[in-house]
């Protein structure tokens, strides 16, 4: 094994309710337990970065992958609907890299979750059900970055996120949310004609539907495990 094969990657997943980290080996296998702290409120860049620094202090690593719940281009945050407006245009990759003195790559959280889940065959769509509604699209394993289905109209003049985000789940309850999810899956199937749909995120535990054969629930840890792919893809 040469030196570059032994690099340790700190995978960070910034969510609307929790910030999680885990150290991965070069193949993407966990080298540490998953650690989690609450997302601060207000979730400004300074406060969120403080939490990341606290979590990172406990770990040994050579480079960092970050999943962010918004559009990310070249390490810069373009949208942050469920965090704080101070994130807009914030260069998270450069800031973190300066603070931690290690190389940093940042991508959309659903894109990273997808990178950890897909098989690389055909059209694969990923949706994540948490605070927000995340989405990621892959064609033969190639990512179409920053697909933002969550903020597109779905039904009753509301977006997917308004109908299926955590606020809607809390307000309307699991039964109604499951009926909506069933409609969303059918709608996305008609739109994308995917071969496989992966469903991730903390609220997958609320799913009570008989899912179609093309749909699979993926574990939450995929949002961290996919972080390794930012360095290999
Ligand atoms: C954001 C997406 C993100 C999703 C899940 C949405 O509100 O716009 O970029 O992937 O939440 O965190």
Characterization of this structure:
Strand 11 (153-155) and strand 12 form a beta hairpin. The longest helix has 27 residues, at 166-192. The chain has 2 domains: 3-111 and 223-231, ATPase, nucleotide binding domain (Nucleotidyltransferase, domain 5, 2-Layer Sandwich), CATH 3.30.420; 119-218, ATPase, nucleotide binding domain (Nucleotidyltransferase, domain 5, 2-Layer Sandwich), CATH 3.30.420. It has 233 residues and is an alpha/beta fold. The chain is built from 7 helices and 14 strands. It has a 5-stranded mixed β-sheet with strand order 3-2-1-4-7. It has helices spanning 45-57, 92-100, 109-117, 160-164, 166-192, 222-225, 229-232; strands spanning 9-14, 18-24, 35-38, 63-68, 72-73, 76-77, 104-108, 123-129, 133-139, 142-144, 153-155, 158-159, 196-200, 215-217. The protein binds beta-D-glucopyranose (BGC). Beta-D-glucopyranose (BGC) binds next to helix 3 and strand 9. Beta-D-glucopyranose binds next to helix 3 and strand 9.
